[in-house]
Amino acid sequence: MDSSLRTNRFALMAADTRVAAADHGFMLFALTGILGFLAPVLILIALGGIGYGIAKLKAKHEIAKLKARRRELRDQSSETSGELPQQRDTSAREAPARAARAVASAPPCPTASPRGRGREGWAIETHGLTKWFDARVAVDDVELLVPRGSAFGYLGPNGAGKTTLIRLLLGLTRADAGTMSVLGLPVPAERGRALARVGAIVDAPGFHGHLTGRENLGILACARGGEAHKHIDPALERSRLTQRADEKVSTYSMGMRQRLGLASCLLGDPQLLILDEPMNGLDPAGMHEMRDMIRDLVDEGRTVMLSSHLLDEVERTCDQVAIVDRGKVIRQGPIDELIGQAGVAVEVQCSDPPAAARALGQLAFASGIALTEHGLTVTLTPGQAEEKAGEINRRLVEAGISVHGLRLVHPSLEDWFLSVTSRLGEEQ
Amino acid sequence: MTQLDLAAARRASWLPSPALIGAKVLDLRKRTILMAVTGAFTVGVPVIFYGIREITHLADPAHYGPAGATSAFATVVTLMAEFGFILAVLLGATAGSDDLTDGMFRQLVITGRSRIALYLARIPAGLSILLPLAAVGYTVTALVTGFLNSPPAPGEFIPSTGALATALTESGLWFGLYLVVGFTVGLGLAVLMGQRTVPVVLLIVWEIILTPALADHVIPHLINLQRLVVGVAMDQLKPAPLAAASVGPNGGRFVIPPMPTWAMAGVIAGWIIGWLVIGAWKMATRDA
Asked: What is the ipTM of this complex?
């Protein structure tokens, strides 16, 4: 009864609601037209896909060849020096080991493990970390040791692979080779636990423009879980955003977004902060504040690793640095020690600069002498600069040259960076 | 285990927490234009449709039947389904791609939260906005059909209350399923492509042009492939009151030979699960 009722009802409804359907022939015509229109597009897409596939295969082949070539070159260099493959590996890791020894001699960090520089002692530790983008190596066999409780600068020119290394550490992309640990936890195996204690800004921090700063932090706090919500207000206050916290992020300047990024880093009460170019977009006052904030964070026992190409900022902010060039870490250690290697210069103002240059020409500790407009500059070998300056003065007086002025010039990080990179350029 | 470790363990879980879902709801809900479109497509369509019908009926009852005539029900639900599918795609694509396009995805990944949890949170978040609004729109349709259908137009059939309730329930469930399909396909494709515009355009073309073409024509030797199109399966799963409105030139018969119910369910479930899995895979492996 009920089913016949339904059938009747549906038949009636069908009759009432039937729309004027297109003619069958017209539909076929339309379908043919659509397919005719789409066919060239589909063919182009298919051809593009095949071309892309071939290019990808070629690129993979090139990468394999490059890698094989690198291995070959390493083998050749070790054969020349008479090393065995195992010794080669050890040798390749000597640079960070030296850096580690240098680091160990630095003042102890507030949060450093009582066991010293063991596996738990490093905030970040990488070995042989490598990342390829097609045929280009972005991170090349990086050995990095970041001590806890310090401000560590990761310095390098644009495109040197700074951001890629940070992305690897944070699990944003996968490494092709090597191992890494963050706060003593292997990454990516224990990425979740490691990142619980890490705050990071990578590139320019992105936020939902249609939400307020506070709402954006709320979303990130939800993702973090735990007590992150309690840290929203203190984080906003610390980044001096409290007054603008309830405005949409789309109205923020770049500097304010950078501050909001820093606030997001603080939500998890982190032990380690990784800041990628944190000074970008900040005005001089903002840079000053950021520098103070980083120092405050370090004073609280946190570790801050910041990547930058601004040498002056890094020198003012950091205790230690690593220099990266073309994906490879070329030097690392405490800034003072590294700069110390560059050698101090002595500016001499005297009555007869050419004669002075001749008189000082045979000094063993003078690694270079250059005449200037009012005198000459003597570059000293590292160590005991004051005594060497005294010796220069004595030699000049003995040669009968009047000395009007003598000034020690300590190199800056920039001078050292340029000397290191220019040396590398010459070697290459 | 410390509290921090507990929080870290929760973060590693692939199950999204209620707070994470709530955060995604907040993100979607605050998109003013999207919410306006959602309201217009879900509630606005039946309100405007019935509003016009009722006005014309009141103006000229002799020529125009009451707004809630059973004949109008199938038309309005079919309209709601078409608009709703596009809306569901739009909402799914937004939920799937806005973190990426705004640069927030990287920030979320840095928190250490499982990427799968971040992905899965989008499903209940998006559906919790879409389905309630669609339910409101459908309720308007059901109420108008139930109460504004007298006096009946000449030849109009008034079903019994029980039959009407069954028809309304079946049609409502089908409508809801249609939206879920649109949402999940939009979500999966947007996550796969990492953007919103292209997936939305592709799926609108798919829904408006390709699906009707594939559903209304038999391609020799490829019938079983045609049956794998979700629109074809959904068409065949339509409750009778709705099927009656979209039969076209074949007098109420499907062009493609009917599929067994299990096959329809399989195709629909395959599309939903398939696109969700594709989205999850891409989310888990994407460079952030």
From this structure: 0.87
